[in-house]
Amino acid sequence: MRVIFIGPPGAGKGTQAAKVVERWGVAHISTGDILRANVKKGTPLGLKAKEYMNAGQLVPDEVIIAMMKDRLREADCADGFILDGFPRTVPQAEALDALMKELQLDLDSALLFQVDDDTVVERLSGRRVCRKCGAIYHATFHPTAVEGVCDVCGGEIYQREDDRESVIRQRLAVYHEQTAPLIDYYRGQSRLLEVDAAGSSDSVLAVLESTLGA
Ligand code: AMP
Question: pTM to 2 decimals?
Answer without folding.
Answer: 0.88
